[in-house]
Amino acid sequence: MPRQHPAEPWRIKMVEPLRVTTRHERQQALKEAGYNISLLRSDDVYIDLYTDSGTNAMSDRQWSAMMVGDEAYAGARSFYRLEAAVRKYYGYEHIIPTHQGRGAENLLSRILIRPGTHIPGNMYFTTTRAHQELNGGTFHDVIIDEAHDPLDEHPFKGNVDLAKLERLIAEVGAANIPYVSVAATVNMAGGQPISMANLTEVRDLAQHHGIAVMLDAARAVENAYFIKQREPGWATHSVADILREMCERTDGAAMSSKKDSYANIGGWLAVRDPQLAEQARNLVVLYEGLHTYGGMAGRDLEAVAAGISESVQEENIAARVNQVAYLGDLLTEADIPLVQPIGGHAVCVDAAAALPHVPREQFPAQTLAAALYLDSGVRAAERGAVSAGRDHSTGQNRYPRLELIRLTIPRRVYTQSHMDVVAESVIQVHKERDRLHTGLDFAHEPETLRFFQARFTPSGSGAGSDPFE
Fold first, then answer.
1. Which residues does 25 contact at the CB level (< 8 Å), separation at least 6?
2. In degrees to the nearest 10, what's the CA dihedral of 27, 29, 34, 39?
3. Domains of the chain by range and CATH?
4. Catalytic hit among 55, 117, 126, 408
5. Counting beta carbons within 10 angstroms of the beta carbon of residue 452, is it exposed (0 to 12), middle (13 to 18) or buried (19 or more)?
6. Where are the beta strands (DSSP E) in 267-321?
7. E strand intervals along 111-232
8. CA atoms of 199 and 243, how far apart (whole Å)
9. Tens-place pLDDT, residues 137-166
10. Helix or strand or coil: residue 214?
11. 157 is catalytic
12. pTM to 2 decimals?
């Protein structure tokens, strides 16, 4: 009989103590943070599922690699090890290191985007769209409609709708589209993959119109695993080979090594065009550092290079995705409304379905994330209207069809028992959801990327009206 949860392909060598807080302590912490889980101190969090970015546990091989980091300002041997690893597993010729994925997004946007240009993509991501808009571009969502339906079981909800993409090209002109932005997997859709067949079609259509295809490769290894599991014709291929095939269908990639590569910091921009590479190498000096370290210490370059080779090992990626699926299965069995199918890096609770009595303008996902933290000290991430921000032309809140809280699982950090605790808390909050009789209003709203720094207050707050008391 197969085990419900296969054993992890690693053993624990060092532990970090966790602090368990009381409900009263969590109430105080939540108020001090303005009901924004982004502003909580990590010391006040028990199980931190806010993100899998830079929160992973590095291996003994990564730690040992850090000891030989070359901290030379120019031409460090650690850069050349990173360059060799990216070329081997991702296949790109020109690699420019950055301090993290946002640094790569900044370089890509400044090089390619001009005011009045249009960038189609398979659903927005917060920082990616912000970089595109700050450089004068307009993002257009060309993902398939199934991606916006939490209950749809489409195995590749990250696919681009080719008809939508063709209509946009006809409307604005190919010359006004600097590149197609393809995420693998799609974060805001719940970690949903794009198929190899669809990526091939996107590449062919873009090439026909002389448009580049740029990959958000932060979780491309997870995407490769889903292709192996779900797409006909790829089951006998290795994850490493599938990853390389995915990248072959693109002209470049922005990478946050804080995800698939297990590192705590780091990233890179990779391109095939030598002229683009030259521009990026010149620009990186202004914003990051010299083109052979790009804002990273030599020891971190070594950790990323080692992490890249570990990320494509079959047993590692299988354990990673299966742990996420384990939590998803527990919540599905308890009839918690989730984005289906379960994604590669997170389990996403449909907050709009869980709290249908809370109006969208009172931010159900933000409300549910705060309630989950209050119940157990588990920190999730809001991925709904707060993250979506405001429309720049109208000033009105954007209300995406997906109003989610994201339970994001760091790699090699938490055990099956931690997942059980998370499931118990989500289920308990769901049982008591009627206590959340009101949502949250802005007390302070930043202009850009508001979900990081915003503060809230319970809607219609007054005596006896605070659901978080």
1. 44
2. -140
3. 23-52+314-458 (3.90.1150.10), 60-311 (3.40.640.10)
4. 126
5. middle
6. 267-271
7. 118-121, 138-141, 179-183, 212-216
8. 12
9. 999 999 999 999 999 999 999 999 999 999
10. strand
11. no
12. 0.94
